[in-house]
Backbone:
């Protein structure tokens, strides 16, 4: 079934004008019948695993997910929520945010939809593997939410990559459709130089470089993040401007800026809170935390019995949009027009292997092959 880049329209309250106005929302991939297949943004105001878990514990629509989690983790999710409420009363602090419940339900669906469950709230094929991968780990509920959101962000990047593939060859023109009105928009957006958006694992620290060179994984990791932010910001800005012109809306500069920044800024903020994206000495780069690597390793073993390091690298690339293989890093470097130094990429990969080995995530066999523990 054919795919198209499209969005829905919703009415939002604009305080500065004291009125409701239409806005583009749920920007992403749709099939020819207008059914959503994947959005580009996470509709999160702030990252809070506790917030997501509270919604799972109390929302009747999420009962299949809640039952699966409680069965595998052996502890009622409601008990965690009640313990947090008691601690709030004792300590006089707020642990679990209390947003508008109707909005919160939509927010969690927008976050976990397409990754953990579908539009009918049925669990997706990989959800049980994600849950099983977290069973037996410390704080399995929180690890599951972090792992699920990391995969949700990767799914958003893959949807964005698919949208680029659909539109390439149109001379930097991205064709977008309004689902409700079946009205086409043609956006003039400078396409990214690489074929698709990925995060690049960088094991070193910026302290090792006076300036992270683009020939190093650290420099490429920073460039890849910036290129994603640039394109996503420009795409949303052009869409909003053209949308407002066709709907004859009066826009203030702050409204334009807020809409344009919301998509990439929320994603990068969540990646930062997950401990996937770091900022040191003014440079942003990707380095996966061990807690997520341990869960992803177990997820890989569930999909590939007798899994090796190669299987883990493939899962990281194909399902979590993270590159660690020196060959992949060289390829994306060539797309940026630079030739990464092979020894730097291999040195970073060796550091990655040592980190996994010291954490007990992999074992080095006598023949030198690395297998998942």
Residues:
């Amino acid at each position: 079934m054919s795919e198209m880049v499209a969005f829905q329209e919703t009415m939002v309250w604009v305080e500065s004008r004291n009125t409701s106005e239409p806005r583009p929302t749920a920007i992403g991939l749709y099939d020819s019948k207008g059914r959503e297949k994947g959005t580009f943004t996470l509709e999160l105001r702030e990252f809070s695993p506790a917030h997501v878990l509270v919604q799972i514990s109390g929302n009747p629509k999420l009962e299949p997910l809640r039952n699966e989690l409680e069965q595998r983790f052996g502890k009622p999710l409601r008990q965690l929520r009640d313990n947090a409420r008691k601690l709030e009363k004792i300590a006089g602090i707020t642990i679990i945010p209390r947003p508008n419940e109707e909005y919160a339900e939509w927010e969690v669906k927008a976050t976990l939809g397409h990754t953990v469950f579908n539009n009918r709230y049925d669990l997706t094929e990989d959800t049980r593997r994600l849950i099983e991968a977290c069973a037996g780990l410390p704080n399995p509920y929180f690890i599951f939410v972090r792992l699920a959101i990391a995969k949700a962000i990767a799914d958003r990047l893959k949807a964005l990559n698919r949208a680029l593939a659909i539109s390439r060859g149109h001379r930097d023109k991205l064709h977008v459709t309004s689902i409700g009105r079946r009205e086409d928009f043609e956006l003039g957006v400078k396409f990214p130089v690489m074929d698709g958006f990925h995060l690049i694992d960088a094991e070193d620290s910026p302290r090792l470089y006076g300036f992270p060179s683009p020939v190093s994984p650290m420099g490429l990791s920073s460039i890849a993040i910036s290129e994603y932010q640039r394109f996503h910001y420009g795409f949303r800005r052009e869409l909003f401007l053209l949308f407002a012109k066709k709907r004859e809306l009066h826009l203030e500069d702050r409204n334009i800026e807020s809409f344009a920044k919301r998509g990439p800024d929320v994603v990068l903020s969540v990646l930062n809170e997950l401990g996937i994206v770091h900022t040191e000495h003014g440079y942003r780069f990707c380095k996966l935390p061990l807690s997520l690597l341990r869960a992803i390793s177990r997820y890989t073993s569930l999909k590939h019995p007798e899994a090796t390091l190669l299987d883990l690298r493939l899962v990281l690339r194909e399902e979590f949009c993270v590159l660690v293989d020196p060959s992949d890093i060289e390829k994306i470097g060539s797309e940026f027009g630079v030739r990464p130094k092979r020894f730097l990429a291999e040195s970073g990969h060796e550091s990655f292997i040592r980190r996994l080995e010291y954490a007990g995530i992999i074992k080095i066999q006598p023949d030198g092959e690395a297998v998942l523990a």
The longest strand covers residues 19-31. The chain is about 50% helix and 15% strand. The mean pLDDT is 86.
